[in-house]
Structure formats: C-alpha cells, structure tokens
Specification:
heterodimer, A: alpha+beta, Elongation Factor Tu (Ef-tu), domain 3, 2 domains, six-stranded antiparallel beta sheet, five-stranded mixed beta sheet, 14 helices, 41% helix, B: alpha/beta, 3 domains, six-stranded mixed beta sheet, two-stranded antiparallel sheet, globular, binds iron/sulfur cluster
Chain lengths: 485, 357
C-alpha cells in the first residue's frame, strides 16, 4: 500500500465508482478458465456442501452433497468433481514441448487455470486436497481412483497459488483488487458482490449503491461459507427432505440459488479482466506456471507419492525463501510493466521519474578493484518526486531494464546517476546506450531480477514435489483410512 | 434504578456472555458501544427495529457440530478430557476426579449455582476434596456494575498446581495447525473466564495458559494444546475498567436520555443512537452488531476512518473525504498543519493522473 493507493481510495469514494490501479493485466487469463465456486457445511473443517464448476458460463455443472454428514456422499462429491476437473487438467497438461536449454526441460503448451471467488475458496480447496490425496482405491474404505488424484492436483494448485504472480489457481477478489481501487475498506473488498458493485455497477447505479446490495439478505455470499439464515431457513429443511424421500431436488434447488449469482459474477469479472491487455511479465510467469505443471505431471506419471502433510524444517525454510523471492520479483516486474503501479513506488520515494537535464558522456573512471579506466557516464535528472533513495543506491529503469546504474549525487529535485553497464565494449558508450538530454526516464531500486532470467528454480531448490530433496513423506495406512467425520 | 437501567427502560436487557465481553475489546475507543453494552441494550433487537439485516446468527449446523463435539469430550465422566489432561498437565491418574457443578440439589438459580461453584473451587484450592475436573461451573463477573454470569466449558485443576480454563471448540486442528482467527477468538473468550476465576481464588492460582480442546484433523478425536492468554487478559482488564468509569461518558448525554427499544419509535431510536459518539472502523464489521448502522453514518459524514486504518494513517490527520480531496487540489487554501500532507497529496494526484492518461 502507498499514499497513492490511499488517495485513490478517497477519490473513488467521492466519485462513487472504482478507479484503475493498473493499466495492464498482471495475470494471465487462460483461454478456458475453469471457474470453481465451492461451498462447505458450516461448523466443519472440510465438509463439502456444493460446488458450481465449469468452463462454460452458460452451462455450469452443479454438484451437491445432499446429506453433508454422510461420508460416502462426500467422497461421491469428490469423485464427481474429479470427473469435471481431471479431464480438463489431463487434456491440457499432457501436451508438452521440450525447451532447448543447457539442460533441456519440458513445458506444457498450456496450463489449467482454476478461478475461485476469494482467498477462502483457495484455502478450502487446499483442505479438500488434504482430505482426499491419501485415500486408497483398494482395501478397506476404498474410494474411486479419481478421488486421490483430484486431491493431489488440488493440493498442487493451492500450493502454487501461494507464489505471487502464479496464475494456476487464483482468487477473483485478489485479482480485482490488484487492478481496481474501490471506495470501501479492504475487508469489504473481500466480498465479491460488493467489490464488483464498485467496479462494474448495474446501469443507473453508483458503486456504493451496488455494493450495498451485497449486504441484502437476498444476495448470497460468495462462499465457501453460507449465510446462517440460509442454513436455518432453507438448507436444513432441504436436507431433511432428502433424508426422508431420498430426492436431491430440494437440496439442489436451494444450493443452485445460492451459487448461481456468484457464478455469474465470476464471469462478469473475467470479462472485465479480459478487457485489459496482458503485461509481458504475466506472460513470462505463465511460462513458468506451464513448466511447473509439466513437472508435476511428470512426477505423478512417474509414480511419485502424494504431497506430504507438512514440510520438514529445511523444506519449509526453502519454501519460504522461494515465496519471498517470487513476491519480490513479482512486485518489481509489475512496476516495470505498468507506470500506474510504478507511481505507487514513486509516491513512496523508492522510485523517481523526471527529465534528463544533463549528460556527461565522456566521464571515465577506474572502478573499485579494477585496473583500467572505463566509461561511467553521468546522467542528471530533474524530478519532483519525494525521493528517499541515498547515494550509492543501485537503480534500474523500466525503459532499460538490463542496464544498472548507481546514484552518485542527490539534492532537492536533482539526482545524478552513473551508468554502470550495457554501453558496449568501446572506449565511448555505444550510440543510444545512455539516456539523452530531454528524455523522460524513471529509475527505481526495484529489480525484477531472476524472473527475467532463469525459467526454473535451481536444482537444489527444486520443490520436493518435483523430485528434489528432502525425503518424501510416505503415506501410511492410517492416512488412507483417516476417518472424515 | 441506576442510570444505565434508566436508559434501557422497560426493555429486557441482553445478557452478556464471554463472547460479548471479549468483543468489547475490539473497538475500545468507541463510546457508543461502551454505553450500549453497559446498559445491556439488546443490540440485535435495536438493529431489527431500524430494519438492518441481521447477520449475527450462527448456523444450526455449526451449533449442532459444536454440541456434539462438546458432548463427546465430556462423555463418560469426561474420559477423553482426562486422558488429554494427563498428557498435557502430567496429571497423575489417581487424581482424576470429575465433579459436575450443575448438581446443586434442586436450586437451579444462578446465584445458588455460582455459590456452589465458588465453594467447590475454594475447597479444591485448599486441598480438600479430589476434584480435578470441574464441569459446568458458573462464574461471575462485574461488568459496569452489573453481575454477569459466565459458563466456561470446564475448569481443570492440577493438584499442587493451578486451575486451568478448558475451552472446547469444534474447529479442527489440521496437521497441527489451526485457523488463527478462530484460535484468537477462543483465546479472547477464555481470557474472560480466567479473569472471572481469578476473582474467586486469586491471581496466582489460575494459569494464564488455557487449554484448547479441538478435533484433530478430519476426525472427531479430540486433541489439546495450551494457549497463552496473557495479552488478552491485559486488554480485557483495561476494557473492563473503562466500563466502570462509564459515569463520565453518561455525563455527556442529554438529561433523561433513553434507548428504550420497546417504547421509542424507530426515528427516536435512530436519533438516540446518533447522540452517542461512535468510532466506526472497518474492524467493527466482524465485531459489533451495530456496524452496518455506524458504517452508513460514517460514510454520510464522509469519514476517512471508514476506508480503513491504512488510509486514515496515510492521510495524517485529515478526517473527511472532501477535505482530503480539496487539500489535494492545487490552488486551494490549506491550513498550516496540513501543508506537508497537502504537498504530498498534490504530488500523488498529479502522478496518478499522468499514469492513467
Ligand atoms: S459498530 Fe459502531 S457502536 Fe459498534 S464498535 Fe463500531 S463504532 Fe462503536
């Protein structure tokens, strides 16, 4: 967050309509995203109640558990969900290309993309994965083969979603708040209906008016939790009806009514995002997503075990480091791809933009530790940004991301940077390799770093799901038979 | 009749419980909530009278699940619980004595039950009797001069050691990890019981570690962990002492102030509520039944607070949306103490417009 973000919030409030936070789309949108709106039974850790799922906005598949306390019906639900999701994942993940590199690697041509309404949906998906991936398909408590396989993929997707910028499994409210600023608070933005009301209100309504409808008892929540009143007044009776008659009609009807509005909003939101042009960084991150899917596919096909329950301490530390690296690289890339995102950093003083007012192309120095004189031209920029960077700071510019520079002097409004590389091998900087007088340029301490280069984590950091160290978790018989009450 | 009863009038008061007392701490600076709670105003009823949607109920499924789990833990003389406590507190087997404090020989009244709880607890503390698991105790707490009765799940006593509050909750601990907001809510509630129990036997005999009993993974099997509630105790004590100074808040209300929900019209209720200053912030949405009302009011007043703490802090003291936007506009007059933020806002306004263009 930044002062800019706070200011835009205030402005959105006054205007009664959300304002843009990005000029491009910072996630990849798959050609056929799989929308998944799950509901769970109140008071239970991971008892599925229903889901609306599919890739066709007009023809969602509705899955329900007519008696959510019945364990067999829960596994039937998971098998049914697997029947929708697994063919989708299989079809996409089985088309693989080999990328030529020093060590050639596989990459899927496309990747599955699961879109859920909110962060709660991702969390619930992870729990569904945990409750099903250790199940056995033979012996006591056998389940359909689709169940453990679905569990492994759901676990994989939910894990990937923790990495900033991954587009494999995304929460719609997160996507929308990354691209628009509403005039309501963050917890309110967590409600898909209210958030969408601010961004794209129905004709003739203001944002706050549309958002207020989200609090109306007639607007069902986007899940995974249902409204307690719905449970009391409709669901309980519908389940009793099923218990008595064995007919799922009432349960289906009630849950359809709760899910369909959210389903429609999900596609409305996808339409809004699709209208934005995709950023180069998003495309690059999607390439990495496709590599990860190929690795997981290969792991499963090679007979690898399901993901463990908890990481070992070493694995957890490594994972944390990877999460942080992904976060840093994502933030920097986003700013490099989008002047509106960069503006937030300028407001906070870690980036600045302005016009080049002087250039010293002839300057040559002996760099510390060096022997020969090399060109180190100076570029002086006038800015009105409140810069908080100091002398000696390494900076980069989105318009020349491969060139690094160092701040050598800084005073009110005037900043001089020394260009450190990317000028060719000659005694003088190559033509055009140094920004000229009159150019408007932005410099920042942010560094997209790794994401521009390696498409893969180094071998020793390979997540264990992909065959790297540390030792694998071996599921026991107990895991397979773990009761699910 | 004291002043607080006078405000509530003939309408029955809303009983406090540990959850509502714990919720007092969510917005400690709000006079409105302090007065309404001290006067035991039925806040859900108030909202209903003003035609706001009630979202505060609990799902029947959640209630059932919680009941089932609690029954399971307490079944057969709390057999499950004894086993868990032995592991957790090193309770020797022979010292496991279960006592149901609800049996008071026909005197079902709160006062009688509470008296019985006190007696047994004091005896136990003095080393008399063999009670180690005290089921269905009834504690009492003074909230703004009113006696509130509280019913913790269980109190466990380790001989030669200390009393522990046991909280039985039906949210799962999955692979040794639980949902943080749920654990925090349970800790805040348990702190209320610890506080009340310390009133009976003194500070030193009641542990600040409460015992949380939850289902393990996807099963019904209970598992136990301890949760340190020292922090919650401090917050609670501060909040309770604030309520005892409620007189100062009441002095600022008009003479004859009433919030009698049964006799006032909805317009009068609205005006009465509006007369007590509020401190709406988005955190209220998950902590206070009045939040939708206060939110509406805050937005009508164009309060920056309603947009969240970050926005409020960023705008450094500017309270209204209109002021913030005026100050951000070049050429508008600015007060001295707002000169700095004005300059920064003008800068962000300009770079935002440039970037969007
Ligand atoms: S919702 Fe209103 S009454 Fe309740 S704490 Fe917030 S401001 Fe105070």
């Amino acid at each position: 967050m930044s002062l800019l973000h706070s200011y835009v919030k205030v402005r959105a409030r006054e205007r009664g309509r959300a304002l843009p936070r990005a000029t491009v789309r910072h996630i990849h949108l798959a050609e056929a995203p799989m929308v998944f709106v799950p509901l769970r039974l109140a008071g239970e850790a991971a008892a599925p109640l229903a889901a609306m799922v599919g890739t066709d906005p007009l023809h969602p598949t509705l899955l329900v558990v007519p008696q959510p306390r019945n364990r067999d019906l829960r596994f039937q639900f998971l098998a049914d969900l697997g029947a929708v999701l697994l063919p989708y994942i299989d079809r996409i993940s089985r088309q693989v290309e080999t990328v030529e590199a020093k060590t050639p690697f596989d990459r899927c041509l496309d990747a599955p993309q699961i879109v859920v309404p909110s962060a709660g949906g991702v969390e619930f998906t992870a729990k569904l994965g945990r409750s099903s991936r250790f199940r056995r398909t033979t012996g006591p408590y056998a389940v359909e083969p689709a169940v453990p396989m679905l569990g492994r993929w759901l676990t994989f997707l939910a894990e990937q979603s923790e990495f900033a910028g991954s587009s494999l499994m995304v929460a719609m409210t997160d996507l929308l708040t990354a691209h628009w600023v509403t005039g309501q608070s963050a917890p309110e933005d967590g409600d898909l209906a209210a958030l969408l009301g601010w961004i794209d209100p129905p004709d003739g309504m203001t944002g706050p008016e549309a958002a207020a409808l989200a609090d109306d008892p007639l607007t069902p929540p986007a899940g995974p939790d249902t409204h307690p009143e719905f449970d009391r007044q409709e669901l309980q009776k519908a389940i009793e009806h099923y218990d008595v008659t064995g007919s799922t009609d009432q349960v289906e009807q009630a849950l359809h009514g709760q899910l369909r509005p959210t389903w429609d909003r999900m596609w409305q939101a996808i339409g809004l995002l699709a209208a934005l042009k995709e950023s180069p960084g998003a495309t690059a991150r999607w390439e990495r997503d496709r590599v990860h899917v190929a690795m997981h596919r290969a792991w499963i096909d090679g007979g690898g075990l399901p993901q463990g329950k908890r990481d070992s301490a070493v694995a957890a530390a490594k994972r944390l480091a990877r999460l942080e690296a992904a976060q840093q690289s994502f933030e920097a890339t986003r700013a490099f791809d989008d002047p509106l995102v960069m503006a937030e950093y300028r407001a906070d003083g870690v980036a600045f933009a302005g016009e080049v007012v002087a250039v010293d192309l002839t300057r040559r120095i002996v760099p510390p530790g060096g022997k020969r004189e090399v060109p180190r031209p100076l570029v002086t920029i006038e800015t009105s940004d409140p810069v908080r960077l100091g002398r000696g700071k390494k900076v980069r510019s989105p318009s020349r991301p491969r060139q690094s520079a160092t701040i050598t002097a800084i005073s009110e409004k005037i900043i001089t940077v020394q260009i450190d590389d990317g000028m060719g091998r000659g005694a003088q900087p190559a033509e055009g390799s140094v920004p000229g007088v009159g150019t408007v340029i932005c410099y920042t301490e942010l560094d997209p770093g790794e994401s521009r280069r390696a498409p893969l984590p180094p071998r020793e950091e390979t997540p264990w799901t992909h065959g790297g160290p540390p030792p694998e978790y071996v599921p026991t018989d107990d895991d397979a038979m773990e009761p699910w009450s | 009749m004291n002043r607080l009863d006078g405000i509530r009038g003939g309408t029955p008061g809303q009983d406090h419980n540990a959850r509502s007392i714990a919720a007092l701490a969510a917005n400690p600076a709000c006079d409105r909530r302090a007065i309404l709670d001290a006067a035991a105003i039925d806040k859900p009823l108030l909202m209903k009278r003003l035609r706001f949607d009630d979202r505060w109920g609990q799902s029947p499924f959640a209630i059932q699940r919680n009941q089932q789990f609690t029954d399971l833990v307490k079944a057969n003389g709390a057999a499950h619980l004894l086993r868990l406590l032995r592991e957790l507190l090193d309770l020797p087997i022979e010292e496991a004595g279960y006592v149901n404090l609800e049996d008071v020989g026909g005197h079902e009244g709160h006062l009688a039950r509470h008296g019985h709880t006190r007696r047994v607890i004091k005896q136990t503390a003095e080393g008399l009797g063999r009670a180690t698991i005290l089921d269905r105790p009834l504690l009492r707490l003074d909230v703004a001069g009113a006696q509130v009765y509280l019913e913790p799940d269980v109190i466990a006593f380790q001989l030669g050691g200390m009393f522990h509050i046991v909280a039985i909750k039906s949210f799962a601990i999955l692979d040794d990890q639980a949902d943080t907001p749920k654990v925090s809510a349970a800790a805040r509630e348990a702190a209320v019981y610890v506080h009340a129990l310390r009133d009976v036997v003194g500070r030193d005999l009641v542990s600040h570690d409460v015992i949380l009993v939850c289902p393990k993974d996807f099963t019904n099997a209970p598992t136990a962990t301890t949760v340190d509630v020292r922090h919650q105790l401090v917050t609670l004590a501060r909040q309770l002492s604030r309520l005892t100074r409620i007189d100062a808040l009441l002095d600022r209300l008009p003479e004859g102030f009433s919030l009698d929900l049964e006799t006032l019209s909805s317009g009068e209720i609205e005006a009465a509520v509006a007369a007590i200053p509020a401190r709406y912030a988005p955190q209220c949405l998950s902590a206070c039944e009045l939040s939708h009302l206060c939110r509406k009011e805050a937005h009508l007043n164009e309060q920056v607070d309603a947009l969240g703490r970050i926005v409020r802090d960023d705008l450094g003291g500017i309270e209204s949306v209109t002021t913030a936007l005026r100050v951000a506009t070049p050429g508008e007059p600015v007060a001295d103490d707002q000169a700095e933020i004005a300059e920064r806002l003008r800068h962000v306004a300009r770079i935002y417009d440039e970037a969007v263009a």
